[in-house]
Specification:
mainly alpha, two-stranded antiparallel sheet, 5 helices, single chain, Phenylalanyl-tRNA Synthetase, Chain B, domain 1
Length: 108
């Protein structure tokens, strides 16, 4: 389980890991070396982050599904071609394609 997803679960959003939060690993796993968003939320303790493990697992799994969906949706050029042909021919190829990608890769 990545600490990144635990932090996302804690904040309720994706932080900027170059400015807001900096992680470090000295051989025993990732940890927060800088927390630059104290105005939003205080830096979490390890136990607070560990309590979010199930939420973080769901976020991580959904991120993997999103990545798989992105490849299966095809290029934007191919999508635009499907949309154009659907409008011209009165078909639903694009919608059917998107529905199949979503049903083949359901989120939690």
């Amino acid at each position: 389980m990545s600490i990144v997803f635990k932090i996302e679960a804690y904040l309720g959003r994706k932080p900027d890991f170059t400015e807001e939060i900096k992680l470090r690993n000295d051989g025993s796993g990732d940890y927060i070396s800088e927390w630059n968003i104290t105005s939003e939320k205080a830096k979490p303790t390890d136990s607070q982050l560990n309590a979010l493990s199930s939420q973080a697992t769901a976020l991580e799994n959904n991120a993997k599904i999103d990545a798989k969906r992105r490849t299966e949706y095809l290029s934007w050029q191919q999508q635009m071609e499907m949309i154009y042909k659907d409008q011209k021919n009165g078909t639903t190829t694009f919608k059917d394609h998107c529905d199949k990608v979503r049903s083949d890769n359901p989120k939690e």
